[in-house]
Amino acid sequence: MAKALRVFAWAMGLACTAIGLFHVIGGNAAIPGEADAGPTMDSLGRFFGAIFAGYGLAWLWAARQDPVPAQVVRWLAAVFLLGGVGRLLSLAVHGWPHGFQVALAVIELVFPLVWFWLADAEERAARERRPSGAPAARPSLPDLA
User: Fold this and answer.
1) How far from each other are the two terminal CA atoms of the chain, in whole angstroms?
2) Gap between the Cα atoms of 50 and 143, Å rounded
3) CA-based torsion, 83, 89, 91, 94: positive or negative
4) Phi, psi of 101 (to 5 degrees)
5) Neighbours of 23 (CB within 10 A)
6) Taking a C-beta distance cutoff of 8 angstroms, is the pair 66, 137 a contact?
7) What is the distance between the alpha carbons of residues 136 and 124, in angstroms, rounded to a whole number?
8) Measured distance CA(90)–CA(74) in Å, rounded
9) Distance in angstroms (rounded) separating the CA atoms of residues 119 and 1
10) How far is it, in rounded angstroms, from Cα 112 to Cα 18?
11) pLDDT digit string (tens) for the chain, length 145 residues
């Protein structure tokens, strides 16, 4: 399960970063059925694309840690789940969106359950490998200075 967590975190990080950059570059054209949504939605979409790319980079950071930090995985999964809940709220208020958005909502509601289940897989494996009494390594944030 530890390998699955790491592979899944890498895949999520790469996918979210690529999708986010696609939205930054493509604007409205990156949203199925919304190519003519206007400048306000284009601006909003590009902004949220940048945020989503940053979210993907956070996944990539987590995937590079040894072990992959369970608390970070849980937070990132919770953010993704919140996005799915937002889509459900939109559905309740405005009705059914484009079918592609429905598929994304399913992914955003199901994947976090898998991450919550896998979150501590590497930390648990590291504890089993570590001599008893040895302290656990804590992931550090990158030095931006």
Assistant:
1) 35
2) 21
3) negative
4) -65, -35
5) 23
6) yes
7) 11
8) 24
9) 10
10) 19
11) 889 999 999 999 999 999 999 999 999 999 888 878 899 999 999 999 999 999 999 999 999 999 999 999 999 999 999 999 999 999 999 999 999 999 999 999 999 999 999 999 888 888 887 666 666 666 666 666 5
Give the pair of three-digit tokens for residue 60. Answer: 């990539």
- Report the 3 state secondary structure along the chain: CHHHHHHHHHHHHHHHHHHHHHHHHHHHHHCCCCCCCCHHHHHHHHHHHHHHHHHHHHHHHHHHCCCCCHHHHHHHHHHHHHHHHHHHHHHHHHCCCCHHHHHHHHHHHHHHHHHHHHCCHHHHHHHHHCCCCCCCCCCCCCCCC
Where do we find the tokens 């945020």? Answer: 51
